[in-house]
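Incident log, entry 3
Record: DUF6708 domain-containing protein (393 residues)
Problem: checksum mismatch between cached and fresh output.
Input:
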Amino acid sequence: MSKGDRKAARIAQRAQQEGAQGKPYGSFEPGGQAANESDFVLYDWTGQTASDAFFALHNDPAFKGFGTDAVLLPPHSLSVSRAPHTGGSVIEAYPHGLAYADQIAGMVGMAAFGALFMQLPLFGLLFYLFASVYQDARMGIGITLFVFLGLIVNGTICYFLIRWDITGYRYAPVLFDRAAGKVHVFFDQTMLFRWLPLWGGGKYEIQTYDWSCLRGQVTRSRVFTGNTAQELASLSCVVVRGPQDPTVVAQFEVGGSTNALAVQLLLDRWEHVRRFMEHEGPLFVQDDGPYVPPATQSLWGALCWGQPLIGPGRHAPSVGMVLAQMFTACFVWFTVPFGLVGWLCFHIKDKPKWPAEILASVGGNPLTGKDLEAWRGVVPASNHESGNQKARS
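Fresh output:
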């Protein structure tokens, strides 16, 4: 048995023993670890051995999640990490809410730029074909038909790539509402294969779930690039019918995926969510904050994308930065249009919309600047704690 297998076996054995004794999983005897910490906090789940050990827990009933290679995390009362961190997955922060974004937020414009970039070799091919027709008129009909079909196929592909980046919403957030004990999930239902809308957002749906009916889980998946398989891990929530009914009725991801060797990052993310919703932690810990997509900055900032010493957010000059700037300056022909297309697509898409009652519950509009700093470390008491304090007074 490998070291990783022994690690998983020890955690599974501990869970089974405590379950047989009628104790919640992860509880500890007085004088040991904190009573609200699970066994997950005892290890650094980073690296191949740790990853294999973690996902081996899926084979144990105490950890079996919903889906293949899915590991169910402990209940909300138990901690899974001692270093909570959003990992840059929060797109907006409210006085009583955190909105986690998917990976689309940082990818807007890539498909449209790819569609436009495809035209360069196409024009070269057309020039070659027309030159061939000019030299040999007998080839004219066949090549003309070939070019016509090629233009139709290319135009169709480019149309849908550009449409992907200018219709719908910039991202599909998951809003954790601490004040109401709810989780609101935004679903973009804009149809790609329809004529309308020509740009901007279309249909959307918001599903709301009780925090008490959610369980976190980490899932491993495999993505194939040619003959190479890459293992990814993602954090998701499974929604059960009720606190006492384990029937799964829905599932959604929280933030983007990461390499399967970095499970610890996902546990840190879930711990941040758990502490926030359980009124145990603030909006952000030190050196953490909301993710700012590059396309949200000014047009000048977008045009300076990829240039470390030019534009807003530039780095302090150093030998390394100067060398990096000299290198990236050779690719201005690429970075300028890439930043411009991303900026245009991001602003053409619509921003996700929350109903007025949800915004009122989380405390109003998203926090920025001094307001964000003022709320950063605040941990409001729960309704239950507030009631107890009033009763004592």
